[in-house]
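During the reporting period the student researcher (J.K.) took over the structure-prediction task from the postdoctoral fellow and processed the backlog of single-chain submissions. One of the processed entries is reproduced below for the supervisory committee.
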Amino acid sequence: MEQSFIDNSDEQILKEVETRLQRANKDRDHHKKRLDDYYRLAMPWRHLSGQEYSESNIDEIFDNTAVDSTVDFASEMRATFTPENFEWMEAVPASTLGPVEAEEVKPQAREYNGSIFYEIRRSNFQAESLECYQDLSHGTMALMIVDRDPSRPIHCEAIPANEIRIARGINKEVDLRAIDSLIYADQVISLFPKAQENQTLIDELKNNPSSEIKITQAVWRDYSDLGNEKWKYVAYYGKYILDKDVYVGAGSCPFIVARWMTDSSTSWGIGPGYLQLPNIKTANLLKELILKNADYAVDPATAYDDDGIMNLEQGLAPGVHIPRAPGSKIDILESRSQFDVGYFQQNELRDEIKRGYYQDQPFQKGKTPPTAEQWLDEAARAARRMGAPAGRLVTEWQIPIYKRFAYLLGKRGILPKVELGGKIVTLQPSSPLIRKQKIDEALNIQRYIGVLASVVGIEMANMIVNKPEAAHQLKELMNVPDGVILKKEEIKQLVAQTMASNMAETAQNVMG
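J.K. obtained the following structure tokens:
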């Protein structure tokens, strides 16, 4: 299957790509207007789809709530999902291993995990991921991870949403991932060495080496063998195929696409900024009107006598003097706009926008500051609203990135092997975000023990609670490293010794 695709003629491959791109273009067209509006009002440093960057975009922004919220949202998402100094994924043995075998391979799994995160920290992932999270605010982000030079760190590159085209595959997952890039003609061969086999292309590139040409890279899933992950890849310029290949294995796809919320009718994600776009537009227009009316209040229009008649065909402007019929006195034309109403409405809109970006927090309405309970309630409410998207980012973002680095390190031959009895052990990535549910279970155990002690008393609770089992359960649920507390059997022995000592002391006191 792999060879048949590679052996296809350029015309056959380009025809297949164009058919897939037509579906992706149709889907993107449904979102293009909103995406452009969002870029214009929340990310003005980005150029619009199919257009060059325009400095006038910033001049159209009167309220910067969306801009600030986008930056804050990106920083918070990076700290939540891919923090710089924390291993946000871990390799755990496959569920086919028993508890004894799993415990035996844990040190090897930690070494495996450490190798991957060492390379992630060595790369430019952190810088590029922050740019990706800004795109996530409107719903869809994309990242390219490639190994162009084995002697250097792995290269990551954020792909702006206006440069990608995506289409759905089976199970409503993102299948086609196409990226359009402008590249100088004299850099094409360096990026795509296989292209030097085409002399006609070489001659065309040499004619104008400083020109920028549009190169499309596309990759899509090969579903002919569902048991094995395979991706077809092609890079082309016009009628020229620059590269083609078939990638096999978990983590072999170089383009990672993740979405905030999804809808069955589209492959594009729906983010907090996408949903808040009406409020963003309204807040921006309201601020513009407030500033416009402020001009009239500070520098009002003035009417004065003239031989002619008053002419307002051109409208009013702050500071102008308007001639009117003779015999009239000079008057200041004051604005009757109510600024306090405008500011009040604007503050409401800003609060709504911040809430949409999960940047809301309890604020002091009167003299009493927010209580600790209010803070916890707001945090819990935000966590519930973020629940479904967070789970999707684990499967579409964290795990693919982890697998991609593992795949590239495996290609380099420097990824440690995890073995048991001379056989390779399969490892599965696990996210700390998923483990948060286990932490909630641990907190429930603690709360229950506390409630039990308040109902029956501390002494009776100490007799009822199975302390060794409780300690072991809390250790497992909270992912406490081995060696921090005694083993389960050792705890049982210690508890038995303590109880025996207490009973002996009690008996001695009674007899004495």
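The committee noted the following: The mean pLDDT is 82.
J.K. will present the remaining backlog at the next meeting.
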